[in-house]
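Re: that backbone. Tokens:
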């Protein structure tokens, strides 16, 4: 799993003077460092909450063992070594979800971009920018259309490397939420270090409030959204980037050019009915840029988003306003 960023904040604000839609309740929050970030889960206090929280973090760790590109014994690493193989139900599910985002974004989102991603990661370690020939070679191994899933079996060309870092965190958040809802929690928030899903009401009795960080000033909030039963994710290059000999490289690659996406757009936030969709689309729009990214988001039902470019220009989908509690200039 990749290192996280905290581009979204969860807030509990009191809105004095407005009737509560739901009674206040006591809550318990637990944070743990997993998935290379701090994951925070908030649930109503019940006799079973502590146990449920432990179960939730156990599930996160077991899914990290499936999807991590950094753990050599993960299922993903095994698939990459053997050019495919038998898929666990979770891996099959996530690969299918990832491929549907590839299709929607015409390949801007591509889970087969692992060789390119690791080329830039290696470049950071060795402090040598990738050579043109290395970029061309890695780019040749990328191609979501070449993945074959038949039954529970995946096959892919030799040299191709999967990287699910653009969607796995959102997917894991969704799985945790599903488990907690089945256990009877009708309110809660799972924050996977910037990939968030919230349902029901917050402990103050209002829809959950999620703040979007100002990309230029981490301590400032740009907008506050009021959300319930929604996933939200942000992709940005202002906190996560590679530095190679003084030059900044983004952590998201453009599979069409083999280069990292440089500078534009600065930050993409997507709200969707599940967190995996929000996560995958945010990464896709980061590659597509403002015009094409907005076009993609506008055409999807139940999806809203905001793209902020390098000059601070904000563009939003028409339905974004319905979630907006407060916008800060
Ligand atoms: P996110 O922070 O969700 O935007 O995901 C970024 C991560 O997704 C990177 O660190 C890579 O692991 C992976 N990634 C980079 N470029 C792409 C791409 N074009 N399509 C899919 N995944 C990508
Ligand atoms: Mg993403």
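Recovered sequence:
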């Amino acid at each position: 799993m990749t290192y996280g960023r905290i581009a979204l904040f969860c807030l509990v604000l009191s809105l004095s003077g407005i009737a509560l839609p739901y009674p206040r309740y006591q809550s318990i929050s637990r944070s743990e460092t997993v998935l290379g970030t701090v994951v925070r889960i908030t649930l109503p206090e019940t006799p079973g909450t502590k146990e449920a929280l432990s179960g939730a973090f156990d599930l996160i760790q077991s899914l990290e063992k499936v999807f991590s590109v950094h753990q050599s014994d993960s299922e993903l690493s095994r698939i990459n070594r053997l050019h495919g193989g038998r898929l666990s139900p979770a891996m099959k599910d996530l690969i299918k979800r990832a491929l549907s985002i590839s299709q929607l974004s015409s390949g801007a989102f591509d889970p087969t971009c692992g060789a390119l991603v690791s080329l830039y990661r290696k470049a950071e370690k060795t402090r040598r920018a990738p050579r043109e020939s290395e970029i061309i070679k890695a780019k040749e191994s990328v191609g979501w259309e070449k993945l074959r899933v038949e039954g529970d079996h995946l096959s892919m060309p030799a040299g191709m490397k999967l990287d699910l870092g653009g969607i796995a965190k959102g997917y894991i958040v969704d799985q945790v939420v599903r488990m907690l809802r089945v256990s009877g929690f009708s309110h809660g928030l799972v924050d996977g270090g910037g990939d968030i899903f919230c349902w029901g009401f917050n402990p103050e009795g209002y829809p959950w409030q999620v703040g979007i960080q100002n990309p230029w000033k981490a301590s400032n909030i740009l907008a506050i959204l009021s959300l319930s039963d929604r996933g939200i994710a942000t992709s940005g290059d202002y906190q996560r980037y590679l530095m190679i000999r003084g030059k900044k490289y983004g952590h998201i690659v453009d599979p069409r050019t083999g280069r990292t996406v440089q500078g534009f757009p600065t930050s993409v936030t997507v709200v969707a009915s599940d967190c995996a969709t929000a996560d995958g689309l945010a990464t896709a729009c980061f590659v597509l840029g403002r015009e094409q990214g907005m076009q993609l988001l506008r055409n999807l039902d139940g999806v809203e988003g905001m793209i902020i470019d390098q000059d601070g220009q904000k563009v939003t989908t028409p339905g974004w306003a319905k979630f907006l509690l407060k916008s800060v200039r």
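Residues 1-6 have pLDDT under 50 and may be disordered. The pocket of adenosine monophosphate (ligand 1) is lined by residues 2, 109-111, 113, 117, 163, 165-166, 235, 251-253, 255, 279, 282-283, 286-287 (CB under 6 Å).
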